[in-house]
Amino acid sequence: MGSKLRLTSGMEGEESVNSPRRLITVRHGERMDLAFGDWIRSCFDKQGKYSPKDLNHPRRIIDRPPRAYLNDSPLTPIGEFQGFLFGQALSDPAIEINHVFCSPALRCLQTCHNILKGSGLNETLAVNIEPGLFEYLGDHVNILPTWLSPKEAAAGTGMNINLDYVPSIISQDLLNLHINESHTDYYSRCHTIVQNIISSTNSGNILIVAHASSLDSCTRMLIGKELPNWNSFQQHVGRIPYLAHSNCLLNKSGKWEMIKPMFPGVTISLNQRFDYPSAWSMLPQ
Fold this sequence. Notes:
Number of helices: 10
Shape: globular
CATH class: Alpha Beta
Helix content: 25-40%
Structural class: alpha/beta
Mean pLDDT: 90
Oligomer: single chain
């Protein structure tokens, strides 16, 4: 069932169905490590067996060594539902998604899968996993995550993945880049990837599922804007919530422009952990 939210083109008098091309870039959903801190220590026993300790922990996770999750966190169930809600909004007939590209990070893959499930496109649209869409490498100077291969991702998440896709940048190339990548290098990397995506798809609307920084890094040079300095970049990334999206339109003059988002974001309240003994300790016994 499609969303009842009204989609907007971001331009008065122009319906989104008439847009020649659109590039939608969305951040992943709520991730386990940011929601629960050192969840690996509490959820894995000495034999590496996983068991959830909260209703917002996944009931099951992909069978990997615990250390594989250190830099490649899964989503929480709420994070998965955030993706599903975004997909429901995206299912509005006023917008059509023709191509899907995703960062190799597990949280992005799971978000992408749930977006496509929510929009009813999970069986008809295959996802292209593009390592070049991974976030700023300066945040991973010690070690890069160990990502799932496309076959492992398809088996572990149930995603419809294009196993024939040839990425613009392979994971090994990122290993060679990650120590010295500046934030301006990161913008250039993302711009190159987006240009390759646009030229290789020729027509149709594109969905990119990636990271908080991706909303700007995948679009700023495309629309001809000046790159931010380091402080502005850091401040901007900190203001991008889960499932926020940017919305770029190819206008009639053949230039890409940033327009307002198609629909509202997914807002949730903070909900502290339920500490049963503490909650009742101040009451008469």
